[in-house]
Amino acid sequence: MTTPTPTGTVAEGDRGPEVRITRRFAASIDDVWAAVTESDRLERWIGRWEGDPASGRLTFYMTAEGDDVEGEEFTIIDCDPPRRFAADTRVGAQTWHLRLELDAADGITTLVFSQLLGDDDMANVGPGWEYYLDRLAAVLRGDDAAVVEWSDYYPAMSEYYAALSAQ
Block means of pLDDT (10 residues each) for the chain, length 167 residues? Predict the structure, then answer.
């Protein structure tokens, strides 16, 4: 078991304080954009979506959690390919405000993932995003996302994220 180092920080976003996690990939910005927005590429590391993106509403299935998962209501707030994507996702009464921002320089694409801090338990949510972003990194390297082990992230990163969200 290898425990990755948590990388999240808290910063002020457009809608309030948010947790931010940054990853850098040796891949083109178009390749990273496709991996985070195209349903078949997205499913390789987290899940797939169904619906018409032009409508601004999709149903997201987090298939990395299993084959029999409930769909999440997904509302696209901002989409500026290949640089910015923001959406609200809802399961039951819980809504998450998510944003992805991409930038590229010298053959490296930087992705900044942000989630608005709210009533969510970041002790659980933060390790989850670290895990999924590392699964994305594995897929972009050409590896199977299954090489990334959930047990390396949770509960090892929980204390870090609990303290981070208390700031």
Answer: 86 92 98 98 97 95 90 95 96 88 98 91 92 97 96 95 85
Beta bridge partners of 72: 60
**Phi, psi at residue 68, to the nearest 5°?**
-110, 65
Residue 14 has a pLDDT of 86
Rounded CA separation 140/6 (Å):
20
- Hey, how many other C-beta atoms are within 10 angstroms of the C-beta on 140? 20
AA identity, residue 135: R
Which residue is listed with tokens 């320089």? 105
pLDDT at 1: 52
Bridge-based pairing state of the strands 57-61 and 94-105:
unpaired
Alpha carbon distance 6, 48 (integer Å): 26
Q: Give, as one character, the DSSP assignment of residue 7.
A: -
Q: What pTM does this model have?
A: 0.95
Give 57-126 as a DSSP string.
EEEEE-GGG-SS---EEEEEEEEETTTEEEEEEEETTEEEEEEEEEEEETTEEEEEEEEE-SSS-HHHHH
Q: In what order do the strands lie in the sheet with 48-52?
A: 9-13, 16-25, 108-116, 94-105, 84-91, 72-80, 57-61, 48-52
